[in-house]
Amino acid sequence: MGHGLTVVFAGTPEFAVPAFEAIARSRHRLAAVYTQPDRRSGRGLKLEGSPIKQAASARGLPIEQPATLKDPAAIGRLAAYRPDVMVVVAYGLLLPQAVLDVPRLGCINIHASLLPRWRGAAPIQRALLAGDSHTGVTIMRMEAGLDTGPMLSSQAIAIGPGETGGSLHDRLAALGATMIVAALDSIESGTAVFQPQEDAAATYARKLSKAEALLDWAQPAAVLERQVRAYDPWPVAETRLADRQLRIWRAHTAQASHPAPPGTVISADEAGIVVMTGQDALVIERLQLPGKRAVEAAEFLRGHPLAGRSLG
Question: How far does Cα 279 stand from its chain's mean position?
Fold first, then answer.
């Protein structure tokens, strides 16, 4: 076994942290960490470092936060670390070809889908929205195209019936962490085999937007239930109650045939708030008004009777 690779790690959100920690604990050497510039967040709009910046700071690693990697000076700084490989996990910045060419053994990406399905920014949520039975993680070598590079390894997991965007995120982040060190070992030993993707089978996972969180009650209940799960914890499925936002955190489907239009609350009791949809009903179990905490349906109904009212 060799002495390990010199790795530059590029990542930003919580999803990247398990992979970062796995590499940090391995025999491979982290030379530097790249992450996006600090953002203002919270009510005080204080500048806050990304989860990866915080993890790298705890380990005393050099941290780079360029606003872009198109600047020749930024590329020069990256080259100065003399990386064997760059591991990229949800970094959020475009890597131009000049950056992809810097590491001796290329740039390796952990992608949260079974490529070529769900190339793009939101593979976790798009898999849930589509009703996929399985998803997984793919380790691939990056090239100029969007998630088009050849694949080193992939591993599938089943999507559970109550899976949310948050729970699937955590499971896939942990899976990627278990796969990346083995991938680096194979790259170092020269045993890594990269397979091209089947471009004809590719699907695109476009970035999530806040606008798509608004539920359309004319859709089938099964579609709406998947949206509720996929948009937890962000952007959170929502509807309108008169002129107020109503966020929906948990719901399930139920068979129903009712003459009322979609969006009509056909019953509301401790078992849930039953809303007519384009096909069957959606039973809201947990919900939230602006400025309030999320509560179970029974608690919500004590102050807000809903039977017979319309949502949306």
Answer: 29
